[in-house]
Write a structure and sequence with these properties.
The structure holds three protein chains of three kinds.
Chain A (H helix, E strand, L loop, with lengths): L5 E10 L3 E10 L4 E6 L5 H9 L6 E6 L2 E2 L5 H6 L2 E4 L11 H8 L6 H14 L1 H5 L10 H13 L5 E5 L7 H18 L3 E5 L2 H7 L2 E6 L2 E7 H6 L1 H6 L9 H12 L1
Parallel strand pairs in A: 3-8, 3-9, 6-7, 7-8
Antiparallel strand pairs in A: 1-2, 1-4, 4-5, 9-10
Helix pairs in contact in A: 3-6
Chain B lengths: L1 H25 L8 E8 L6 H20 L7 E8 L4 H14 L4 E3 L4 H13 L4 E2 L16 E2 L5 H14 L5 E6 L2 H16 L4 E7 L7 H9 L4 E5 L2 H13 L6 E4 L6 H4 L10 E4 L11 H14 L5 H20 L5 H9 L26 E7 L2 E9 L4
Parallel strand pairs in B: 1-2, 1-3, 3-4, 4-5, 6-7, 6-8, 8-9, 9-10
Antiparallel strand pairs in B: 10-11, 11-12
Chain C lengths: L1 H31 L6 H17 L5 H23 L8 H23 L14 E4 L2 E4 H23 L1 H11 L1 H6 L4 H27 L8 H12 L4 H21 L4 H16 L14
Antiparallel strand pairs in C: 1-2
Helix pairs in contact in C: 1-5, 1-8, 1-9, 1-10, 2-3, 2-4, 2-8, 2-9, 3-8, 5-6, 5-8, 6-8, 9-10, 9-11, 10-11
Classes of the chains: A alpha/beta, B alpha/beta, C mainly alpha.
Protein name (chain C): Branched-chain amino acid ABC transporter permease
Membrane topology (chain C): Multi-pass membrane protein
Main location (chain C): membrane
Chain lengths: ~260, ~400, ~290
Amino acid sequence: MSEPILKLTNIESSYGPITAIRGISMSVPEATIVTVLGANGAGKTTVLKTISGIIDPRKGAVIFEGKAIQSMDPDAVARIGIAHVPEGREVFPLLTARENLMMGAYARSDRKGIADDLEMVFNYLPAVKRLEKRTAGTMSGGEQQMLVIGRALMSRPKLLLLDEPSLGLSPRLVKEIFELIVRINGEQKLPILVVEQNAGTALKAAHYGYVLELGRVVMEDSCERLMEKEDVREFYLGAAPENVHADIRLKRRKTWQ
Amino acid sequence: MKARNLLTSTLAALALALSSSGASQAQTRGVTDTEVIIGSAGDLSGPAANNGLASAHAMQLRVDEINAAGGIHGRKLRLIVEDAQYQVPRAVQAANKLINRDKIFAMIGTVGTPQNNAVFPLLEQNNIPSLFPLSQARVMWSPVNKLKFQFNADYRDQVGGAVKYMVDQKKTKFCAEYQDTDFGKDIVTGAEEELKKAGLSIVAKSTHKPTDTDLGTQMINLRKAGCEVVVLGTLGRDAIIAYTTARRAGWTDVEFIGVSPTYDPAVSGVPDGGTDGLYASTGVWIKPREEMPEAGRQMFDKYKAAYGSEPTVSAMISYIGIDLIAIALEKAGKDVTTESFLAALESIKDYNDAFGNPPQNYSADNHQGSNAAFVTRVKGGAYELIAGPISHTD
Amino acid sequence: MTELSQLIVYGLATGCIYSLIALGFVLIYKATEMVNFAQGDLLMLGAFVAVTFILTLGLSYWLAFILAVIVMAAFSYGLDAVVLRRVIGQPQFSVVMLTIGLGFIFRAGATMIWGTEPYNFPAPFSSGVSVVGGVVISHVAISIVVGTVVLCSILWAFFRFSKLGVAMQAASQNQLAAYYMGVPVKRIFSLIWAISGGVAAVAGILIAPLTLVDNTMSMLGLKAFAAAVLGGFGSIPGALVGGILIGMIEQVSGAYFIDGSKDIAAYATLLLVLLLRPQGLFGAVGRKKV
């Protein structure tokens, strides 16, 4: 197997006073979808922000295509080919959908390539094409989520980071978004690192998964095998009743560490 | 025995102290065997530095000339200028230093009306004359105070002369556009006093702030009132704005007249003749070179050679001021005291300055040398003398 | 009627200047959430720089115009890159104090360099007038209105169609997302400062033939601030409309109410609007994401 496109080795970083990651190592191989699961506050978003340069890690290295990038500024990280789709559908609310997409290609200057990619994005996202003249702030949540994914694709990334794409969307939209992710991965051979709370959907879509608890990786495996594990089934796939969730989690955590 | 010794020495010390203080009273402050010390709280920096610097230069020029000619009764003049930066507290600080440390004989050329008003009580406490300040407010010489002297027409005299001229030209509808400050109101008061003599009054008044950059409405309002003459209670900048606004709006059947701050190269030098036709009244008129007395021409050359620019009105005022001090010191004799100096100033009659201004006369109840004003008018980027000297009290 | 038209002409000209200064306030505020109280002082500096080019270097009006705008844009860029960028994220209070302090420094610096005597600003059209239906319109007033319209059109096209302009909008609307797009946000913000400085210089040069050049010009910034608030701080159309409204209200109230009401009319209107509509005339109720 070839060298993974992205490798984190023993990353430690903190974001605000609470959320911290403590010695995380993980890798994203070429052309695969890797998912990071975990509860709120487990440090999933911090991992992505560390990769894209919003946070500089206190320790450890972020290796992208063989180069250490952990001290680069976020705009520079974006320009070397890592597209980050942040949590919460961060559109440019007063720009039109089309302008939002074009902002994705800000760092590029190959007109022809940009035009081709816009075609490609519209092909993936016919809904966005229909709304291309609408200002992004007036679009629905699902449309905005599509838009920010399309915008990330416009930078022709080598790696796509997705932070909670399902957040606040209806089950039907979540399904649609993940089908899109799988399709893009399959057709473009684009490696994707997706952070999710919606473990069932994410595990079905991804190839490989990491489970984060309080800033540490407590489990990693291929998604098929993760789905088999009892802990994962109980805590993330809803096999245990909701109201006893917290108690069991406390008890079980020990076995993971 | 010991006690008596103590008593004797104490008495001796007391006597000594008394006699020495007696001696210093006999000797006039600021006057030594070799020097007479003159102080000035001028402006060497800050917004009025232009005036202050020119004044300081011109004073030093006259002082050097007098000293080169052997001084006065064997004494040289020494000028000490402190920077007041056009700030009242700085002016007070400067005055305190000049009074207490330098022990000046007289104060000359303090810049600005509020600064002069703040400094004068300090001078008065120490019986120091306040001479020829760079302020054209009436309070600089009136009501008569034995220590206050000014030699040229103040704002009210200037506007008085100007109004008199306009009344002579059969103008009847006078208006005023003025800064809403003591300065502006003083000028309006002067105009009203003079109009009263002719049985007239100001038919419309309008105000602005010193910082205003647009006088469009003011001009429209005055135009509605049908003014024939607009008296400007302004400095140079707002005079230009008022005048150009009115003329550009096509208001041509009206004359504008300002006082000495409008008698300024910055006003006459507005490009494309923008201020052509504007009247300015001034107490000190800079004659064309060929009409100026020889002494004035020499002074202009020396000043230009030393400082690289033409002397301004402030420079001329302060140059004349030092000259008047020298004359009074000469008159007061070798044993000059402040009282004999003031008496000598009051005795100056028919003094003609180096620049050909109207003769000055002082007396015990008149401490203003001349109240004559010159009415000038901008033509082709320069001031042309229209009338004057006019004394509105004639 | 003629009189009212005349007042409207005056109001429009001064109002355009307020609009341009207010535009500078708004551009910087939208991008960085800073209120730049030195905006009026940038206008003053622009006029001083231009008048120096004309009087000292003997350049033509148009060349001096362009160079002064470039100089002020570069100056403002540097101001952000060297000074203001460092206070981003500090409390609003310190930012406000900083820009007020900068204003003082600029005024004092201008006095040191150029003195206190006002300079006449020679413009090719400074003394021309046209009469339209009895209303006298000075060519300076026309130049102000035309200049404002042209500048606003250029800026509109720039923000609407150029890649950099759209990126500026994007960075103003969502700084984080702009970073993720590879937009060099810090440099973009400095460029926005540069535009504001350039706009201030244009305003200064346009009005200079009317007001003469001295450091009281910076006082225009205060009224323009009222205009920006009136329009709803953060709205560009609001700034433009607010400026023209304040210009008009001043003139009309000065003519039809008691003497002196011209000075307070702008602020009285502002208070009234803020009481009835606290977000300003064009203010958006939504909040931007940072």
